[in-house]
Amino acid sequence: MLRQVKPKNARTKRVMDKREPKVVEGAKIALFLRGNATSQLVVDALHDLYALKKPFAVNFQKKNPILPFEDSSSLEFFSEKNDAGLAVCATHNKKRPHNLAWIRFFDYHVLDMIELGIVDYKPISSFHTVPIVPGTKPMMLFQGPSFDSHPVFRHVKSLFLDFFRGEPIQKLDSAGLSYVIVVSAGEASDDETQALPKVNFRVYSTKLLKSNTNLPRVELEEMGPRLDFSIRRVQAAQADVLGEALKKPKTQEPKTKKNVDVDLVGNKVGRVHVDQQDLSNLQTRKMKGLKRSAAEEEEEEEESEVEDEDVVSDVE
């Protein structure tokens, strides 16, 4: 842990105030690290992921003796030094070739980790598309039922959403939706002996074309990187630490109103209580088409008279 120091000037105080916890957190800084042994493939993949994350990223060019699952002290040191909440560590060895360890921090301590091995890779340089504007927020799409049912794939979904979410915004122009990240996977089996399906990571640029409506016609073109991951080691967050990390401040909790709820889509739904009503005397609209003719009224009167005579005879 870094020692706590008192600010000696205004500049140091501004830096320390910037690191203080906030009600609405901004984009998380991600560290891109290299282990002692790396391959050119995993270094190129790390560079492409860094291009997607810029400017909220710090790229380390030198190698570091980091083993995320064995010793996390170095990761926590770098996290506190750079005020980073995320990290990606690239390693390569015979047992786990072309390896990327995705780490998430809470209070500068490792919260959870997942290790993904690169099975197939095609860099951004292989695609002839317009480069990404740094700081652009991507659209995220997860295809496959496993991302909602299987715990490991729910972990992958949560980590990717946290990694690429960017700055919180209130309004967004359609022209700012310049690319889409699509993460897909097959259906995972509950049998632990069977291998988990691969995670396919694709990035597409959007083209807004003219249409006959007010909304533009959208076409997708792959822009890279194209990555296929195999899931290796997973370290889930501890229940008590996760509960502390997900705790919301009281200022962000919505104020509850009586008989007013919000559904899953975000629409406000109200509940109104009324007394029991007698609908027999309800005045309805009189329509000419529903008015009975004189012949029908005479038939009804004759029928009612016959029924009355039958009742009188039965009584006698």
TrEMBL record:
GO cellular component, one term: nucleolus
GO biological process: assembly of large subunit precursor of preribosome; maturation of 5.8S rRNA from tricistronic rRNA transcript (SSU-rRNA, 5.8S rRNA, LSU-rRNA); maturation of LSU-rRNA from tricistronic rRNA transcript (SSU-rRNA, 5.8S rRNA, LSU-rRNA)
Annotated ranges, domain Brix: 28-240
Organism listed in the record: Schizosaccharomyces cryophilus (strain OY26 / ATCC MYA-4695 / CBS 11777 / NBRC 106824 / NRRL Y48691)
Region described as Disordered: spans on this chain: 273-316
Keyword hit for Nucleus: yes
SMART domains: Brix
Signal sequence, renumbered to the chain: none
Presence of keyword Cell membrane: no
The organism's taxonomic lineage, starting at the top: Eukaryota, Fungi, Dikarya, Ascomycota, Taphrinomycotina
Compositionally biased residues, Acidic residues: 296-316
The protein, known as: Ribosome production factor 2 homolog
Pfam families with a match to the protein in the record: Brix
UniProt similarity note: Belongs to the RPF2 family.
Main location class: nucleus
Locations listed in the record: Nucleus, Nucleolus
Keywords: Nucleus
GO MF: 5S rRNA binding; 7S RNA binding
InterPro entries in the cross-refs: Brix, Rpf2
